[in-house]
Amino acid sequence: MLGKSMKNKEQQCKGAGSYAKLLGAQLDLLNFFGHALVFGMGLLIGVTLTFFVNKLSLINFQIQQLSLLSNTLQPTLLSSTAISSNISLFISNNQTKNNGARNVSSLPKKINQTKPSSSMIRVTRIGLREFLRPPMMMHDMTDEELLWRASMVPMINNVPFKHTPKVAFMFLTKGAVLLAPLWERFFKGNEGLYSIYVHSHPSFNGTVPETSVFHGRNIPSQEVRWGENSMIEAERRLLANALVDFSNQRFVLVSESCIPLFNFSTIYWYLMNSNETFVEAYDLPGEVGRGRYKPKMMPLIRVSQWRKGSQWFQIDRDLALQIVSDHQYFPVFNKYCKPNCYSDEHYLPTMVSIEYWKRNSNRTLTWVDWSKGGPHPSRYYRTDVTVQFLNKLRYGTSCVYNGRTTNMCHLFARKFTPHALDRLLRFAPKIMQFN
Ligand SMILES: *[C@@H]1O[C@H](CO)[C@@H](O)[C@H](O)[C@H]1NC(C)=O
Ligand SMILES: *[C@@H]1O[C@H](CO)[C@@H](O)[C@H](O)[C@H]1NC(C)=O
Ligand SMILES: *[C@@H]1O[C@H](CO)[C@@H](O)[C@H](O)[C@H]1NC(C)=O
Ligand SMILES: *[C@@H]1O[C@H](CO)[C@@H](O)[C@H](O)[C@H]1NC(C)=O
Ligand SMILES: *[C@@H]1O[C@H](CO)[C@@H](O)[C@H](O)[C@H]1NC(C)=O
Ligand SMILES: *[C@@H]1O[C@H](CO)[C@@H](O)[C@H](O)[C@H]1NC(C)=O
Ligand SMILES: *[C@@H]1O[C@H](CO)[C@@H](O)[C@H](O)[C@H]1NC(C)=O
Ligand SMILES: *[C@@H]1O[C@H](CO)[C@@H](O)[C@H](O)[C@H]1NC(C)=O
């Protein structure tokens, strides 16, 4: 009895099943046409949308249309068009910002619906030249944005365009570049082989004549305090601004009291041909060396790895990239290298000695005299500047360059006061054979 009724039920189910199958097939067919129709519409909408990426209101309108359609259309298709509309929104939103000069209200009010306008083509076409052009000096990137942009490295080493390697001279100053007239003479006639970046106090409002090589070379800056981490931030900011220009291959940090000791062609040749970086690093027992180490820096930095050195470096692009993208050492210094630690004298020497010592010379190319003691090196005034003195700085020591011993160990020197400028301008061009 029970078995029979079950069998009946089974048959009933079977019958219902085959009926359902038939119905299903018809439904499938219907569904197929429905899908195709819907797909075509989606495609049409997608294409229409991408044509009007610049016009927000238009996109909004289309999205409204989409949401109307969404009541009748299948969700799978909708989401694919929704993605394209979101991408369009994303582009149009941030294109106006990135174009700087362009301004939202100056965009065409009505866009011709039959074909994209020529102005839109100009906006969206990004050739290599546009890509390689460095942003304006006074850009509006935050430090975080700038460091990220600067950290980019091409994976293909062969450069498919002509470029002349440049030396980036990065001036870290309080105000004006005090010895600018000497540097002007130094740079003259070497256009295209160098770039200049100036980081001065943000409140500095001095002006530079338009004819000067320093004109318009100030980068967006922040306040810098001697011996504090803000100094490292400024160095990284300078490096990042310089890295954004792909043709910068060597990076030289100079202060307002630095002078060049050779002519441009000699310095350019020395830097470009060196297979080493010049970050001074030495281990110094005692209070002003290892005494500044903080045990909390363990385990990243052990006291035996702690190094000291001058902040005035000369490095290549590879090391510059490592410095702007360092997310390991700088946070530790930022946290633990507090007063009486002087990160400007320890951060780079220590990090480079741990990670990049293989190609580092452990010396700097900037001459300075600490022999008189105290927290600041000797300063040079008018009467200090003589031919003998300058030649002593140029050839007075011995060192190794590309594996060979040489007596040309310093290309720059500090600290020179503006009082020394007169005599520097009188002697230097002759001794150093400026153009
Ligand atoms: C599109 O953007 C809206 C709002 O910003 C968001 O809710 C939606 O999930 C996005 N759609 C897709 C597919 O990303
Ligand atoms: C687009 O730029 C604005 C600032 O104009 C920013 O707030 C927003 O996050 C950017 N959108 C994306 C997706 O990066
Ligand atoms: C944007 O363009 C409008 C009209 O062309 C102009 O009046 C306005 O000053 C511009 N705004 C900026 C910030 O350039
Ligand atoms: C759109 O472009 C066509 C052909 O270029 C032109 O004849 C028409 O006047 C334009 N319409 C508008 C609204 O600009
Ligand atoms: C420049 O800055 C100084 C103070 O730093 C101020 O006294 C002076 O008025 C400023 N000059 C201009 C032109 O803004
Ligand atoms: C530089 O210092 C590092 C670490 O102190 C050392 O390993 C390296 O041999 C030194 N390089 C030169 C060229 O002296
Ligand atoms: C630099 O070149 C010299 C000479 O070819 C060589 O002796 C030296 O080992 C090289 N240094 C580095 C760090 O490659
Ligand atoms: C630069 O100085 C060197 C000597 O140090 C000299 O041989 C060379 O000719 C000078 N270059 C120019 C362009 O004057």
Task: Give a written overview of the molecule.
The protein has 435 residues and is of the alpha/beta class. Helices cover 44% and strands 8% of the residues. It is built from 14 helices and nine strands. The chain has helices spanning 2-51, 56-70, 75-98, 118-124, 128-132, 143-150, 180-187, 229-243, 264-273, 317-324, 329-336, 343-355, 387-395, 421-431; strands at residues 166-172, 194-199, 248-255, 259-260, 314-316, 366-367, 399-401, 404-406, 412-413. The strands form three sheets. The protein has a four-stranded mixed β-sheet with strand order 2-1-3-5, with helices on both faces. It has a three-stranded mixed β-sheet with strand order 4-9-6. Helix 2 packs antiparallel against helix 3 and helix 7 (180-187) packs parallel to helix 14 (421-431). The longest helix has 50 residues, at 2-51. The termini are far apart. Mean pLDDT is 79; it is low at 1-18, 53-59 and 61-117. It binds 2-acetamido-2-deoxy-beta-D-glucopyranose (NAG) (8 copies).
Give the arrangement of secondary structure elements.
Layout: H1 2-51, H2 56-70, H3 75-98, H4 118-124, H5 128-132, H6 143-150, E1 166-172, H7 180-187, E2 194-199, H8 229-243, E3 248-255, E4 259-260, H9 264-273, E5 314-316, H10 317-324, H11 329-336, H12 343-355, E6 366-367, H13 387-395, E7 399-401, E8 404-406, E9 412-413, H14 421-431
Parallel strand pairs: 1-2, 1-3, 6-9
Antiparallel strand pairs: 3-5, 4-9, 7-8
Helix pairs in contact: 1-3, 2-3, 6-8, 7-14, 8-10
Bound molecules: 2-acetamido-2-deoxy-beta-D-glucopyranose (8 copies).
Organism: Psophocarpus tetragonolobus
Membrane topology: Single-pass type II membrane protein
Keywords: Glycoprotein, Glycosyltransferase, Membrane, Transferase, Transmembrane, Transmembrane helix
